[in-house]
Amino acid sequence: xxxxxxxxxxxDSAKRxxxxxxxxVRGDEIVAIGKRDEIAxxxxxxxxxxxxxxxxxxxxxxxxxxxxxxxxxxxxDDLSLDDWLRKYIFPAEAxxxxxxxxxxxxxxxxxxxxRGGITEYADMYYFEDDVARVTKEAGMRGxxxxxxxxxxxxxxxxxxxxxxxxQKYLDHWKGDPLIVAAVAPHSIYTCSEKTLQDSAALARKxxxxxxxxxxxxxxxxxxxxxxxxxxxVAYLGKIGLLxxxxxxxxxxxxNAADITTLxxxxxxxxxxxxxxxxxxxxxxxxxxxxxxxxxVGLATDGAASNNNQDLFEEMDLxxxxxxxxxxxxxxxxxxxxxxxxxxxGARALHLEKQIGSLEAGKKADLIxxxxxxxxxxxMYSVYSEIVFALKAxxxxxxxxGGRVVMDERKxxxxxxxxxxxxxxEYQKKILASLAAPSGN
Length: 440
Ligand SMILES: [Zn+2]
Fold this sequence. Notes:
Layout: E1 2-4, E2 7-9, E3 17-18, E4 21-26, E5 29-35, H1 36-42, E6 48-50, E7 54-58, E8 60-65, H2 81-96, H3 99-115, E9 118-125, H4 128-137, E10 141-148, H5 159-173, E11 179-185, H6 193-206, E12 210-214, H7 218-228, H8 232-238, E13 246-250, H9 256-265, E14 268-271, H10 273-278, H11 286-291, E15 296-298, H12 311-326, H13 334-341, H14 343-348, E16 366-370, H15 382-389, E17 395-400, E18 403-407, E19 410-411, H16 416-435
Parallel strand pairs: 1-6, 2-7, 8-9, 9-10, 10-11, 12-13, 13-14, 14-15
Antiparallel strand pairs: 1-4, 2-3, 4-5, 7-16, 16-17, 17-18, 18-19
The protein binds zinc ion.
């Protein structure tokens, strides 16, 4: 297959942008990137996708999500993180989250993400084996973490059951081309030291990545200082959890020493501007982290705390949040934000050898984006266009591992009508469950 014509934004190490470029794809890999004439002369294609007048770029990488929570979109807003979690989300999950809920919620999340050009996501939820199953069915790529938490979860009522489930889950998905099964201890405020250490040991025994929320809100920093006399990052370093296999979501309340620690251990971090602004959790020190060499990816967080999964919007907000909080319009330029949504997201997930840029030898995960809408015309700088002007709805075609999953906005792997219908049915069930007296 050849994707030909258009402005090819490679996000390779030279940050090449090729006008009238092309990508040649064989199987699930890119075999060549270059000028259209040159590629057309070198390869015969069974299928050519015309990308004339459009942007061709790497698929976006959503480095932190809870896809199934799409069914809780807008269930409780305008609250602090701890009130939102403890008073609304944990109780709603206890009453509603089943394998069927997770399957339909994840399909809804994936539908939204694919329509917005996201080709890889990192997920933390329950019944993660079902998350992996529907992700694979949709042809999407994922680093999918089974949540370990110190209270009875919707899927596993005890920690022993959770660890047994997770081992089985890791075994099930070993070696899959699309799915990386991961272990996801929720956070330091919902997991004991032993739970955190046991989770890390399980992950490392199986060569699986570790996904965890780190230093998300002021209460987490205060609790950590009071209990351990350390910041969350220092505490996680001390107990042996940090390493080059860890992705920390948020990492907002991190001082200079913490940032050095994260860089030292090769921890990847995930920035979630909408969610952080909405719960007033704080502003991640993105610029200091990038300067220290920490891989910082971009993310939507779950739809219940955002309330959408649109990485174009997150790019726009990530740039503006750094600018306004520092009163410096030069902070975090557009090109760096595109790096965060692509190659740095891949680095944060420790997958930069496979995805994140358009280069020969990498997986063929790419998107074709229309630039002809009024809000996108004219285009002077391709990076400014991507970050400040384009919207998720401008994405026309999505290719993952050489397979077209959305073609001119038509979904090829998901039944959109059925998913939206199921979401409405679930809305009724969820509302009824919240009206019922507690204990039901
Ligand atoms: Zn989260």
